Structure formats: C-alpha cells, structure tokens
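Message: A physicist's question: would you kindly supply an amino acid chain plus fold tokens?
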Amino acid sequence: MRSLADIQEEYEFLEGDERYRLLIELGRELDPMPDALKTDATQVRGCSASVWVYPTDESGKLHFLADSNAAITKGIVALVIAAVQDKPAGEVAEMDVTGALEPFDLKSQLSSNRTQGVPNMIALIKQHAARIASA
C-alpha cells in the first residue's frame, strides 16, 4: 500500500474525475479481506455503502484489512487505512487521523453520502488501536 504522503502528492496534481479514478485505484490495491471477516462486528456503521474494517497486530504494528461493496467508498476506505497502516497501535490510538486526511478535502470533493461514514470509520480504527495498545 502506498503511503499517505505519496497518495497526497499524486492527488494534488489531479482534478475532478481523475481524483475519483485514483480513489478507485486505491481501493483495488487494498489487501483482500476474506468474506468470513465481513461480519456485524467488523462493519462500520453510518456508511451509505457496506464497509468492513478488521485489525491485525503484526509485530506490534497494526495492519488493517478492509473492504466495501462500492468502488469509490472502497477508495476512501483505502485512503483512511493508508494513514494508519503498519503503525504501532499506541501511535494510531493517539493520532489525529482526521487532520492527516485534511489535505484531501474530501468533504468538498465528494458528496456527503460518500463521506458520512468516515468519522465512524476513524473512530472504529482508533478504538481497535486503543484496545490492542492496552493489551
């Protein structure tokens, strides 16, 4: 998965539909999430599309598997995951993920339906990180 900084660099040079295409491409780059992990417990509430996020702890670093049934939403999920992927759980629990995503200005780039679940996704990721960090 690309770093958030690399994605931002490319995103800044694009406009309109090109940004949508980049988001769709990012969604395709997510690690595959087995259907068995797409459960009520891993589903993000408040999203217009179905979104699932599952944390794993690999050598003290969080690695998320995520998926969505909508291409652009899956790209937004990938963007959020890029901000936290493979970082220590304690760092993710304290991180300002919303601030890290501000340069993408998603609220003005996308419809409110597409971004309404982002705060819930961030909250779920931070909850998982805090739980793993305290274990």
Notes: The chain has a mean pLDDT of 90. The CA atoms of residues 47 and 81 lie 16 Å apart. Strands lie at 51-58, 61-68.
